[in-house]
Design goal:
Length: about 300
């Protein structure tokens, strides 16, 4: 069973309510119809023309309380809640929905901002980042071709603590969504001292912090990607690695590397790239590429539903 089939089956079993606040987009409407027909999730499709005015005021009052410490006024909150994106975020905040998926017609910063403002950042993780769930056909590496790549969409140049938090939050996502034991590789252009540099020092500091924050996490670095995912190469370059060349969660040193990496694999290996999935929040939210296709929306909804559990 491939990764997409597994995820959609798990979502069907969960039967969660997911909001899609971009009903002006034909792709979103088509995805919503398919999801409802197949029973993958319960869908609420939103646009500016079908917001409940009473709920809008209720959410505006709650949003005002959330953002008042940052200087927001009630008028600001009411204006913000005219946007279906924020309405969906507040539905998720209050429990009127289990999660939301947007980004077909919004930028990643727009979606991330709505999530941070309305859902809040998990105190333990302390940062919001993103990842892609990669499903690579006919691939013997990872977990039958399944990987998590992070961060590919939000933090341009994470510091050591941020990098450690990215590793921990994405390991937890791999365990929950894929049902696997996460094996986390901190990637670099060096394998265990084969080169020197500022980025390597940052990666090593992040590795130490991640081990301290999450004892028992199966994590290693710094590793070149071939030493991280190919057992034969790991045996040559670093035979004492905890991962033995079997990493399934790949943590890139910066956004540039992560974004380039996932797109190369997606296009050249014809991989399914599900995401960006936003992690580090109190409740689940998934972003979409503005170039997404219908299947991308369906699979992001399925993953978001699974993450609620």
């Amino acid at each position: 069973m491939d990764i997409v089939t597994k995820i959609r089956a798990k979502a069907k079993a969960a039967q969660k309510t997911i909001v899609l606040p971009e009903n002006e987009d034909a792709r979103v409407r088509e995805a919503a119809e398919f999801i409802s027909k197949e029973g993958i999730a319960k869908i609420i499709l939103l646009g500016k023309d079908n917001l409940d005015k009473a709920k809008q005021e209720e959410y505006a009052q709650l949003y005002f309380e959330l953002r008042k410490p940052k200087g927001a006024t009630l008028d600001d909150a009411r204006k913000t809640l005219e946007d279906p994106l924020y309405y969906a975020a507040m539905m998720t905040h209050t429990g009127d929905a289990d999660g939301y998926v947007a980004g077909a017609s919004h930028t990643t910063p727009d979606v991330a901002r709505s999530a941070i403002h309305c859902l809040g950042v998990n105190d333990r993780i302390s940062i919001v980042s993103s990842c892609f769930l990669m499903g690579i056909p006919d691939c013997p590496y990872g977990d039958e071709g399944a990987f998590i790549f992070a961060d590919c969409g939000i933090i341009p140049d994470p510091n050591p603590r941020q990098l450690a938090c990215i590793a921990i939050s994405n390991a937890e996502l791999a365990e929950k969504v894929l049902g696997v034991v996460p094996r986390v590789a901190m990637l670099s252009y060096s394998t265990k001292g084969s080169a020197k540099g500022r980025v390597i020092d940052k990666t090593l500091e992040a590795l130490a912090l991640a081990k301290q924050m999450q004892p028992g996490l199966l994590i290693d670095g710094e590793l070149q990607v071939d030493a991280a995912i190919i057992p034969e190469v790991a045996e040559i370059k670093y035979p004492n690695s905890l991962l033995k060349g079997r990493a399934n969660v790949l943590i890139f040193p910066n956004l540039e590397a992560g974004n380039i990496g996932y797109k190369l694999v997606q296009r050249l290996a014809k991989a399914r790239a599900i995401g960006p999935l936003i992690v580090g929040l109190n409740k689940p939210c998934s972003d979409l590429s503005r170039g997404c296709v219908v299947d991308d929306i369906i699979d992001c909804v399925a993953v978001t539903a699974i993450r609620v559990q």
